[in-house]
Design a protein that fits this description.
54% of the residues are buried. It is built from 22 helices and 26 strands. Helix 4 packs parallel to helix 5. The chain has 3 domains: 241 residues, Aldehyde Dehydrogenase, Chain A, domain 1; 203 residues, Aldehyde Dehydrogenase, Chain A, domain 2 (3-Layer(aba) Sandwich); 187 residues, Aldehyde Dehydrogenase, Chain A, domain 1 (3-Layer(aba) Sandwich), CATH 3.40.605. Strand 5, helix 6 and strand 6 form a beta-alpha-beta unit. It is α/β, with parallel strands linked by helices. It is globular.
Length: 660
């Protein structure tokens, strides 16, 4: 049977019909994908890229009907819908350019059938970004869109087919996550999972694929981008008018239904009253209603379940005596036919009062004392999320203090916190906010391969570095322990370890920072930081030292079982400082862990993956290697961070005055 898809802004408006996939449909799609895997992988990268580029052209040609579908099915405002089509186009062209310039079918071997599970809040951009990346890397795709937005996904797949992507290489499976999604992820033929959604569902997916190995004995990769408890810090030097404009757009654009949206505005107490006064006034200027009218700024939330949860959250804080502000015009303007929530401001005593992410047009405000900035940063980091973070200040020292302490994938200075641009602000979080790599970033496609060249990491950045060489000063400092290990290995007569250290030193990108292209007046910096704590598991001393060398090459700290204390004492002091002894790391979710390296057999690997899936906290990835293997993909030990700075806001941009 078909089911109606209704406009969340007007439930009388039936946008279309959807026939959800059955279990038989899923099984048939899996069989088609499996049969299409080899032919699609053998298709030259240039041909795969050409199909994606044709799809991008078709999206642009069909901009108007796509806008109507996004506005009616997903409740998007006109400006949001335009931005979403543009982002989908950017993803297609970005990944096409990557495979054209760096991929070779002889050395870049895809995973096989990949399941793409996308959300309703960006039903075209994120859907197409996942699918385009998997296809570009040579994987057939099984795409399950969100239950609320199957129509825009169907149109996207039609355009991919029209552009020349074989039908068996990209198949649409609309339906419920509990049925279609579970059947899809639970099937052994699925060789990779891409997911954007809640942290809770990501954990379910991790448990489902835990211990499942591919033909080469490696774990099935899970790329998860989840939510955030995103904060913006505002000190008393910030320009209040700019703060309010950026806070309103960050918190209420898309009705707050962005994973990057501002959730907590932290204002220095000396400036707080002025910010609150202007913020309430600005909220009153927002137009709430059916986004079919171009004048509307804030549309509906996606469905009645979301609406009820957000309203329950607001009422709970009212009952607790917190100051809650909603403009009178908004309370009655939305009407009764849609699932609207008025833009809301709630004042908190501290961040810890927020127990979960509230995915809607609700902004929380916290006042802080100037001397408590470090404590505030600790509280933000203690949430465990690490997606976006902002700061508004005209003091350079404060910018450096906040940026250096931030544990977030995307940090914004003196600007809004939404609207990351593909290739300019690669997007994705860390901790509870995602596994990495970043969407629209240089490392994404490498995670969608089962094999890649040993120099893939260096090759990925070679073309970009011709135009914007990286800042390598920090990299040289990070490599000091690796250089010391190399010298020790040479003294020990261990030629193999010496050569491995030298190769890792040449290949690593840990500690590098690159300035990415962007508009005049804005500086965008892409940094590769180490995954701080990496558990090294090996059945031989040689393999353990190779793993340790890889960790040192990234700039991280290696975790060894305490039973290996005698081996640690034989290492140079500088290396010992980067090796910690710690037992029960796998099973104790309270012990920080960022990645696992594993040399060993399949049974021990299965046990490791299963134990990690039972841990609380962030999802931790495992890099599995056969005994004796030294080709460790160093990108798995790195965290990508993107910094976007509005240079003009801090007092002007001299380059604007020199344009001839």
């Amino acid at each position: 049977p078909t089911q109606p898809v209704r406009n969340p802004a007007d439930h009388h408006d039936v946008v279309g019909q959807v026939q959800e996939a059955t279990t038989a449909d899923v099984d048939q799609a899996l069989a088609h994908a499996q049969s299409a895997a080899a032919p699609w992988a053998a298709t030259p990268p240039a041909e795969r890229a050409a199909a994606l580029l044709r799809t991008a052209d078709l999206l642009e040609a069909r901009m108007q009907p796509l806008l109507g579908l996004l506005m009616r099915e997903a409740g998007k405002s006109a400006s949001n819908a335009v931005a979403e089509v543009r982002e989908a186009v950017d993803f297609l062209r970005y990944y096409a350019a990557q495979v054209q310039s760096t991929f070779d079918n002889a050395t870049h071997i895809p995973l096989g059938p990949v399941a793409c599970i996308s959300p309703w809040n960006f039903p075209l951009a994120i859907f197409m970004g996942q699918v385009a990346a998997a296809l570009a890397a040579g994987n057939p795709v099984l795409a399950k869109p969100a239950e609320q937005t199957p129509l825009i996904a169907a149109e996207a797949v039609r355009l991919l087919w029209q552009a020349g992507v074989p039908r068996a290489a990209v198949q649409l499976l609309p339906g419920q996550g509990e049925t279609v999604g579970a059947r899809l992820i639970g099937d052994a033929r699925v060789m990779g999972v891409m997911f954007t959604g809640s942290t809770e569902v990501a954990r379910i997916l991790q448990r489902t694929v835990a211990g499942r190995l591919d033909a080469a004995g490696r774990p099935i990769p899970l790329i998860a981008e989840t939510g955030g408890q995103n904060a913006m810090i505002v000190d008393s030097s910030a320009l209040v008018e700019q703060v309010v404009g950026d806070a309103v757009s960050s918190a209420f654009d898309s009705a707050g239904q962005r994973c990057s949206a501002l959730r907590v505005l932290c204002v220095q107490e000396e400036a707080a009253d002025r910010v609150v006064e202007m913020l309430q006034g600005a909220m009153g200027e927002l137009r709430v209603g059916n986004p079919g009218a171009l004048r509307v700024d804030v549309g509906p939330v996606i469905d009645a379940e979301a609406q009820a949860g957000i309203i329950r959250h607001i009422e709970n804080f009212k009952a607790k005596g917190h100051r809650v502000f909603q403009h009178p015009n908004h309370v009655s303007a939305a009407g009764i036919q849609g699932t609207f929530v008025p833009p809301t401001l709630i004042e908190l005593n501290h961040i810890g009062e927020l127990e979960r992410e509230v995915f809607g047009p609700v902004l929380h405000l916290v006042r802080y004392a100037r001397d408590d900035l470090d404590r505030l940063l600790d509280q933000i980091n203690a949430t465990g999320y690490g997606l976006t973070q902002g700061v508004h200040t005209r003091i350079d020292e404060t910018i450096a203090r906040v940026v250096n302490r931030a544990h977030a994938g995307n940090v914004y200075v003196n600007r809004n916190m939404v609207g990351a641009v593909v290739g300019v602000q690669p997007f994705g979080g860390e901790g509870l906010s995602g596994t990495g790599p970043k969407a629209g970033g240089p490392l994404y496609l490498l995670r969608l391969l089962s094999q890649r060249p040993a120099d893939a990491l260096a090759r990925t950045f070679a073309e970009a570095d011709r135009f914007s060489p990286p800042d390598t000063e920090r990299r040289e400092r990070l490599l000091a322990p690796l250089t010391t290990l190399e010298q020790w290995a040479l003294q020990q007569g261990n030629a193999a370890l010496t050569a491995t250290c030298q190769r890792f030193a040449q290949q690593t990108q840990g500690g590098t920072a690159r300035t990415l292209p962007g508009p005049t007046g804005e500086r965008n910096v892409y940094t590769l930081a180490p995954r701080a704590r990496v558990l090294c598991l090996a059945q031989s001393t040689d393999d353990l030292l190779v793993e340790t060398a890889a960790v040192l090459a990234s700039g991280g700290t290696a975790l060894w079982p305490t039973a290996l204390a005698h081996l640690r004492t034989q290492l140079p002091t500088l290396v010992q400082a980067q090796v910690l002894l710690q037992d029960n790391t796998l099973n104790d979710g309270t012990q920080a862990l960022d990645a696992v390296l594993h040399h060993g057999d399949a049974p021990s690997l299965h046990a490791v993956c299963t134990a990690l899936a039972r841990r609380t906290g962030p999802i931790v990835g495992v890099t599995a290697l056969q005994p004796g293997a030294t080709d460790i993909p160093l990108e798995r030990l790195l965290i990508e961070r993107a910094l976007s700075v509005n240079k003009a806001a801090a007092g002007g941009n001299a380059s604007l005055m020199t344009i001839g």
